[in-house]
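Q: Sequence in, structure out?
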Amino acid sequence: MNELRAAGLKARRRARECLVQALYQHQLTGHDARELRRQFAEREPFARADQLYFDAVLDRVLATREALNAEIDRYASRGEEQLDPVARAILWIGLHELAERPDVPERVAINEAVELCKRYGPTDGHRFVNALLDRVRAARPR
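A: Exactly. Output:
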């Protein structure tokens, strides 16, 4: 893999990490995209993130979060209201990537969500995230 592509993948991974934090914060505080962007622009890790990706995903996830929650309810063994806010944020990102980001391969979207959950989510939450996203992927027409 060339160095430029590797740097781009790391920047996208950092953007996802920032997104998890921003979406978690949104759930706790109700801050809108503008306020979240302002706060994250001041943080050092954000400087190394894919900021365009962060902005696009943040806007779209916040605009469609009710539909994303309905999708979680449809495929989950428990209601989305029972989810840990970190796991919910990660699922929102993963569901968005599966549905609306053809530039992100399905396996990458699921793997990234699982890795985020292992790092930031509740204990064994990665199993729930993996199972739900895999069910969603399998149910989608190809």
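DSSP finds seven helices and no strands in the chain.
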